[in-house]
Amino acid sequence: MAKNPHTNPNSDGPHDQDFKTTEHSKSENLEKYRSDAEGHDLRTNQGIRISDNHNSLKAGERGPTLMEDFIFREKLNHFDNERIPERIVHARGAAAHGYFQPYQEAARFSKAGLFQDPGKKTPVFVRFSTVQGSRGSNDTVRDVRGFATKFYTDEGNWDLVGNDMPVFFIQDAIKFPDFVHAVKPEPHNEIPQGQSAHDTFWDFVSLMPESTHMVLWTMSDRAFPRHYRNMEGFGVHTFRLIDKQGKARFAKFHWKPLAGTCSLIWDEAQKLWGRDPDFNRRNMWDDIENGDFLEYELGVQIVEEEDEHKFDFDLLDPTKLIPEEQVPVIPIGKMVLNRNPDNYFAETEQVAYNPANVVPGIDFTNDPLLQGRLFSYLDTQMLRLGGPNFHEIPINQPVAPFHNNQRDSMHRQTINKGQASYEPNSIDGGWPRETPAGPENGGYESYYERVDANKVRARSASFGDHYSQATLFWNSQTDVEKEHIIAAYTFELSKVERPWIRERVIKEILPNIDLELARRVGENHGIEAPSSKTAPADELGTSSQADSPALSLMARLPGNIKYRKVAILAADGVDGDQVAAAKAKLEAEGAQGMVIAPSMAPVKAANGQTITPDAMLNGMPSVTLDSVIVAGGAESVKALSQSGQGLYYVQEAYKHLKAIAAIGEGKDLLSAAGIPAQEEGIFLGATVDDVFTPFTEAMGKHRVWARDAKANMMPA
Ligand code: HDE
Hints:
Helix content: 25-40%
Bound molecules: CIS-heme D hydroxychlorin gamma-spirolactone 17R, 18S
Largest sheet: 10 strands, antiparallel
Number of helices: 20
């Protein structure tokens, strides 16, 4: 077809070329949609003032309600239609606004506008999610976490729709419906919620060896992060970055949390389902309200095109990661999440991410999982958000201006002026016009990739290795992490009713990861695991690396106590000076000391002061905090020692490997609870000063790992 004579020449974009976002552009863009009722009259959607919002219109006080009551009808009609379909996966989520700022390094790899100027802040909206459960499910279930970022750039929206694990369960998008059907609650009884511990999941994954690597990640403690701020993020697929010279390189995206990585303990995660089902979203919300923002570095692993085939796996295979020791992660920018949404539905629920939303300088590869995703997101959002105009919903609108000839359909908001809704046209001056491709112009140009192939329904032999990176991951775990993985497989399989599925996992999958893993899980199920690997050599594959330290959660522990929450246990008679000292010292280190008392009544301290508790023992149980200080004061400690809740508090903290400090008489609570005094991670002293440094050092390692085996003895 002939080129449009009205193509927009470089200098000719009267509005668009000068457009520049700032950190606040998205918030300013949302402002015109925000509604604040303060000081306003109650009205109908038609603007009529309402005089009585308590009584419907009736024929007589005890008579039938009248059809003509338009106020009642409008209210009920709207209410009846409040729900929209939840996401088929990733239904439960929480989101925050913030900004992204590139480092100098970023511009080397991509011409994308958001990477060019280290002084520039691009607004972002990030949604974290679980995958399996419904909107109302628990935060701390064993599951993958979604980590989806919408960058509102000068050049339009870029969505980096990633997860907190770097690989995926399947290699080809055509298997996604099968996988999701298998992992979701079972179809006959809709059980279990938020869990992979059931027959259909294990049936499917044990018949699909390609899922083994990812399943192993989900059996690790990565599957229940302590906080979204302690979670890594991954783009998973290999993407392409295109630089200003038009040179393309392969790239894997990483989010590295600046607060380090750490997770919950499985028993703790389970208890949180009941104690605080909103644990992760609450922590993020509260922290942002307190000014304790979430921070991540964006990093890229870059592979030159000529090195594409230099690896012992296929870069296009989404069940494989590139070990960081082979290709280092280069930091290219920082993201800060610093503002909570105003309205959950309008923003977090209605946001629509799509990996197909890219800007010039970012492009796709032929990863068959990615290719399928490029279709799926917009498709599912048509249903969920009610038709093709969901890009007009405020949270989804680009901040950059956009004009095209798409028209009409349900709930269209834009009032397109002019007579011509086609292109080329001569009636409306040819507008809107194309923009030439190339970095100096700004039009999107797909990577010039040569494709010359037969049409085949097949999988590349280079995707055949299903186990070597699972083994790499296993080998990279510390002993404690390995024990947790063994316990996870044991637990999950214990929920599988069909014996042949349990056997298949233990005899046909696990040995190919590691014989010891198979033997230990087998032992726990009374099933003898094979003494050698069972898969064919091509499925076992080879890894040029025996282990990759970066794959252990312990590789990036927080190292300090910033953002940590510490319980300070206190009852009447507590040593008030110790409580005050503990609080002040924790706060000075960026942590939060919470006074936890038997009830919400003010605590009468021995020094005559009263202390207002932050929470009570069963309102903020130990699973919701990171460690415990038992303040001294004979009366206080006696009261706590005579309370089941007081004893349970420290026992549970002990079981979950938390650092525990006891000041003065505080040690008596520990001995009443059966907690050994002379043990790593237990700190006794006469004053807060005596214990503070070693106590916080232990907290910096997140948990007292040396206690792991022993902690199982604690009945809490
Ligand atoms: Fe998604 N995924 N996905 N996914 N995904 C969706 O889109 C899909 C995959 C991810 O907070 C859906 O709007 C297919 C990998 C996140 O709103 C749907 C395949 C990764 C979110 C969909 C995958 C993801 C989704 C459901 C295999 C990590 C939540 C609702 C080919 C790189 C985004 C929606 C949010 C959501 C399809 C695999 C991440 C159905 C077909 C791999 C973080 O379109």
